[in-house]
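Please, structure for the following, as tokens.
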Amino acid sequence: MPIITSMLDTDFYKFTMQQVVFKKFPDVEVEYAFKNRTKDISFHDHIYRERFLKEVESMAKLRFKDSDIKYLKSLGLFSKGYLEYLKRYRFNPEEVNVGFPHFGDLVVHIRGTWLNTILWEVPLLAIISELYSIPKCNGTRINRFTTNEYFTGRYNLMSKLEMIEGSGIRFADFGSRRRFGKRWHDKLISLTTNSNSYDNFIGTSNVYLAKKYNIKPIGTMAHEFIQAMQTQVRLSDSQKYAFQVWADVYRGDLGIALSDTLGMDAFFNDFDMYFAKLFDGARHDSGSPDEWCDRLVKHYISMDIDPKTKTAVFSDGLTFPEMIRLHKKYSNKIKVSFGIGTNLTNDCGIKPLQIVIKMTKCDGKPVAKISDSPGKQMCNNKDYLKYLVTQFKIPERRI
């Protein structure tokens, strides 16, 4: 049985972004690349190699079910035209180029129209993570986990949930792409929704599990959306253009702006009073969370906006103790919520992978993600990176 068996087994923001692409940028061509940030690991096992290629091919058999379309329609965010497009949507494995050029290396490139390729990222990462995690614990028995792994994951999860019981903390599952495995992800959501900490749990980014457990799907935009705009307008206006296009399509819905594609300095320069009032808040995904939230609060105050009417979403490599710390420090200053990924969905006793797939080109031109943390930069063109630095006055120490 393939790992990915539902078109909804992906992050919600893939659909919210794809609808914008459907309406505004249907013919834009893009490229994505896989990057492994984990040190001292390799993908050399021949079983891994063969299974991954088979998993990519199996994606072509997936279809949106009538019940999937009905569910997406019920959310009230998606147009009739976009939902009709999804009914006809098919994954095309020819858009994905996979290679193992050197011992232990895995290379993945995705090329095609943005509209057609945008849904590849999350399931491919979930497949890579599961094929890596499961054999490490369980020989070659893919898609299964042992009693030991289950109890390790369950014990760790319940211990974390006990930490926040009755705390008022609000958190969501953001862990689809780096989960230990699909079945554990499902069990984790089941355990969480039936725990004493259910009031703390506000939803999941995984649309399939949101539908199955009748909880809220969570997500707005990802870095690729802001990156792509770097080729659609004058570079210095690209981030503001991304926010404006988003607002034009969603008219106040899905109002959390991603803040670190070009770093927090560039974000705060572009997130002027118009956008600060228009959007419900912002999401942190790299750099110091304390510096970022302090600046966000001051930014609102400087424009006579009450920070307590806005939301700060933390989503960068969170752990439960860190979530508790940030909640105690900032919940009396601004609305605070958390999106927890790897530490929630891949804590079953082995070291999880740190892997990403990011956009590298749009309409044949390079694009970049700078971020506020060392190692999270994505750009394959040094000349473009230098130009970006000058346009947004990004400190060269971060490049």
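Residues 209 and 265 are 36 Å apart (CA to CA). Residues 12-142+355-367 form a domain with the nicotinate phosphoribosyltransferase fold (CATH 3.20.140.10).
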